[in-house]
Specification:
25% helix, two-stranded antiparallel sheet, single chain, alpha+beta, flat, two-stranded parallel sheet
């Protein structure tokens, strides 16, 4: 799956460099680096987060947040 996401990001970046306005969905889960009790880091997918290609810097990323309290509730689970 990771290779497909890299390909998508590379193609979207190529379009952006050609002047195309790239607008994409943020996604519903993303990669995070966590630390276990021994201090060792490991990668994990986190719900309600941003994933590829939504974390691409060369794009406008769209997602949904709670209507009246976005700072309290964060990202909407259905977006």
């Amino acid at each position: 799956m990771r290779r497909r996401q890299e390909y998508t990001c590379n193609e979207l970046r190529r379009l952006w460099l050609q002047g195309v306005l790239v607008v994409i969905a943020a996604g519903n889960e993303g990669l995070a680096w966590l630390m276990d009790n021994d201090g060792d880091a490991y990668a994990a997918n986190m719900d309600l987060s941003i994933s590829d290609p939504g974390n691409l810097e060369d794009a406008i990323v769209v997602g949904a947040v709670h209507k009246s309290s976005p700072h309290h509730y964060g990202v909407s689970y259905f977006s």
